[in-house]
């Protein structure tokens, strides 16, 4: 067992096949239910991102069987399929929303755009204990932008989400997982407390709060991969 808190990164949870690259990131509701059931039956508890940071910064002891479930992009199926399953096991999750595309479709998905959550669905998930973070305003590749454009993507999404949700939005997830020092600095200076990357592994003591690690859960991952991800923070030995 590697010490630290794993943050699982999901995208779509849906029974329906989709066109394009996002299909490999689609987990069926049956599989998602089996994964949640495994966590529940083995005593795992979901923690908030705030708690994760307290663990990383040494204010809380690192205990076993803590996990964070995260969803990137805010697909509508997160409400339709993932949310009821999370509630069944009393789990919470953080969903990273693209503020300029709420209620619309994921135009950035190559080969086919997928429906995204609308505000009503987001609010209902919020009432059910789900957290929300920002995934930028229009899912642009941040390191390729000028400082001004970058600040707009990062700052605008925070203020739009905060206004609609009526609460602080403190966490960010880098679109496409791409960031550099400049991006990190701007995310910090826009008032976010932490940001999630797609670097694999668990988060331990002293982890950089602006490069938190996550474990990608893919649709075709076997049960063995799932267990390796959970125990080791990666699916390859
Ligand atoms: Zn994304």
Notes on the structure:
The chain has one domain (7-232): TIM Barrel (Alpha-Beta Barrel), CATH 3.20.20. 34% of the residues lie in helices and 14% in strands. The protein contains 7 helices and 10 strands. The protein has helices spanning 29-41, 49-56, 77-88, 119-127, 147-165, 181-189, 223-232; strands at residues 7-10, 12-13, 26-27, 45-46, 66-73, 94-97, 131-134, 171-173, 194-196, 215-216. The radius of gyration is 17 Å and the shape is globular. The two termini are 13 Å apart. The model has no long low-confidence stretch (mean pLDDT 95). Bound molecules: zinc ion.
Strand content: 5-15%
- The radius of gyration computed from the alpha-carbon positions, rounded to a whole number of angstroms, is 17 Å
- The CATH top-level class label: Alpha Beta
Please provide the ordered H/E string of secondary-structure elements: EEEHEHEHEHEHEHEEH
In short:
The protein is 34% helix and 14% strand.
What is the element layout, followed by pairings?
Blueprint: E1 7-10, E2 12-13, E3 26-27, H1 29-41, E4 45-46, H2 49-56, E5 66-73, H3 77-88, E6 94-97, H4 119-127, E7 131-134, H5 147-165, E8 171-173, H6 181-189, E9 194-196, E10 215-216, H7 223-232
Helix pairs in contact: 1-3, 5-6
Bound molecules: zinc ion.
Zinc ion is lined by residues 72-73, 135, 139, 175.
Task: List the keywords.
237 residues, alpha/beta, TIM Barrel, 6-stranded parallel beta sheet, two-stranded parallel sheet, 10 strands
